[in-house]
Design a protein that fits this description.
Blueprint (H helix, E strand, L loop, with lengths): L11 H11 L3 E3 L9 H8 L2 H11 L8 H13 L7 H16 L3 E24 L3 E2 L2 E3 L11 E8 L2 H6 L8 E4 L6 H4 L1 H11 L5 E5 L25 E4 L1 H12 L5 E23 L4 E11 L9 H20 L6 E8 L7 H9 L7 E6 L7 E7 L2 H11 L9 E5 L8 H4 L5 E6 L4 H4 L12 H20 L8
Parallel strand pairs: 5-6, 6-7, 7-8, 10-11, 10-12, 12-15, 13-14
Antiparallel strand pairs: 1-14, 2-3, 2-9, 4-8, 5-9, 9-11, 13-15
């Protein structure tokens, strides 16, 4: 969230009013706001021995300590990046299926997904006037290729869509470089997703977009983009923060800039992949479901260890922890390892479409897709009564200082957004992910980002939360 400062002389009531207007509604629930019946509070509190048992098990060298990190590192070291539509992703899914079966989890299977795939081939960019400089770049997902010989064109640098509009008469036949300031990922990513289409309206021949990150070590960031209807599709890529700022400085001095850009990408229709499924079948209400999830696919850079190997591996390892401890709840806990998330939640939408008859039985959907750093609480989207239930659950994590419970009126996941949009409660973990977007979609997304102890705690929290909600005497009330 964007922090805002107010003068200390402002009356408190004015500050509260302005915060309500300016800051997205993200309320920290407190026991004073909740009116749960005592019997339900007592029931949730009765799971404290379960929480302590799970936490002890994942932090014990004789138990499960380090297992999530070990399995994730073996997986990412074996397969590296896993772009949807590639043989490498499918090989990694085969590996994952065998691993889940080896753990004797229930109902292990895969479900096919079809989509149009995209793959980068050779690409390069360079400043060629007034001097030569290679520009580190990554073509954006869904981008068209340049002509085979590449494009050489003069440059227009803009800092916003308003700036682009003001310079619209200068754009035709040129390469537009975006040097937009980073505000937050959610606010700034629109330049990656729509920058090419906006520039194309004014006749640009290509766009190079400053990577969507608050910090850079000359690392370009990949990501998906899409073309608006009715515009000419032009090549588009991300460049580094350093190069975007360099080009901006030179342009502002009146220096005439020319860039050479060559991109070769491939589209293939009827690509196939698979969502991967495993369960702990419930004892008395197996048709009711609590979902834990992360996505197995990644961009074609780095190892996809953070985005989203960590999320996928705390999901399935949480089921293994429960199974090893003989903890089987009333409802089923289902693990979903999504495919083709990076291309626009393709696996999640396919799953939603194929499981319409089950949706009324989904009690809670959980996902990790914004890092598996040290957890400090729960982020929840659902009814206020359900939020109060989750507050009581969060209180069970006091031994690891993870009792924060934030109630959001907005969706709290990526793939699970498709479920939250139809009023199914959603949950993710709050974790100390301030540096997440430093590594996101880059060559730096490797196992070096992951911490074994943090992965253990994330795994334990997924296990405890999913078990309690799957075992409670009541379903989570919907809005």
């Amino acid at each position: 969230m964007t922090s805002r400062r107010f003068r200390t002389s402002c009356p408190i009531a004015v500050v509260v009013f302005l915060l309500a207007l300016l800051v997205p509604r993200l309320l920290a629930a407190s026991s004073g706001q909740c009116r749960l019946v005592k019997s339900l509070r007592d029931e949730i509190a009765s799971y404290r021995p379960v929480a302590e048992r799970v936490l002890s098990y994942v932090q014990d060298k004789r138990g499960y300590k380090g297992r999530t990190w070990a399995t994730l590192s073996q997986f990412t070291d074996t397969f590296g990046s896993r772009l949807a539509g590639t043989r490498n992703l499918e090989n990694s899914i085969d590996y994952m299926m065998n691993s889940l079966k080896a753990q004797n989890l229930d109902n292990v299977h895969a479900e096919s997904v079809m989509f149009t795939g995209w793959q980068r081939r050779k690409e390069c960019a360079a400043l060629v006037k007034p001097r030569f400089k290679n520009l580190a770049m990554l073509g954006l997902g869904g981008s068209v290729s340049t002509v085979p010989q590449g494009i050489r064109a003069e440059v227009v640098v803009v800092t916003s869509f308003d700036d682009l509009s003001n310079k619209s008469s200068e754009v035709s036949g040129k390469i537009v470089v975006y040097n937009q300031p980073y505000v937050s990922y959610s606010e700034t990513v629109v330049y990656r997703s729509k920058g090419a289409s906006e520039a194309s309206k004014y006749g640009a021949v290509a766009t190079l977009i400053r990577s969507i990150t608050p910090f850079s070590l000359n690392t370009p960031h990949a990501g998906q983009q899409s073309y608006s209807d009715g515009v000419k599709k032009i090549p588009t890529a991300c460049i580094t923060v350093e190069d975007a700022e360099l080009l901006n400085r030179m342009y502002n001095r009146g220096t005439k800039l020319e860039i050479f850009l060559k991109m070769d990408s491939k589209f293939f229709a009827n690509a196939t992949s698979r969502n991967t499924v495993a369960e702990i079948k419930g004892t008395t209400d197996p048709h009711k479901i609590v979902l834990v999830s992360g996505h197995l696919d990644s961009w074609d850079v780095g190892q996809g260890a953070m985005d989203d190997g960590g999320g996928a591996f705390i999901s399935w390892n949480s089921l293994v922890v429960l199974k090893n401890l003989n903890l089987r709840p009333k409802r089923s806990i289902r693990c979903l390892l999504w495919t083709a998330e990076e291309e626009g939640y393709i696996g999640a939408y396919a799953y939603l479409k194929g499981h319409k008859s089950e949706l009324e039985n989904f009690n809670l959907v959980i996902e990790s897709d914004e890092g598996t750093f040290q957890p400090y609480g729960i982020l929840f989207h659902g009814s206020e009564t359900s939020a109060c239930i989750m507050l009581e659950v969060a209180n069970l994590f006091d031994s690891i200082n993870a009792t924060t419970m934030q109630f959001s009126k907005y969706n709290v996941g990526s793939d699970i957004e498709v479920f939250e949009n139809i009023n199914i409660p959603g949950l993710s973990l709050l974790n100390k992910n301030e540096k997440y977007f430093w590594y996101h979609h880059t060559e730096a997304d490797t196992m070096a980002v992951e911490d074994p102890d943090s992965l253990d705690l994330n795994t334990a929290m997924f296990a405890v939360i999913s078990y309690i909600i799957a075992d409670l005497s009541v379903d989570l009330p919907r809005s």
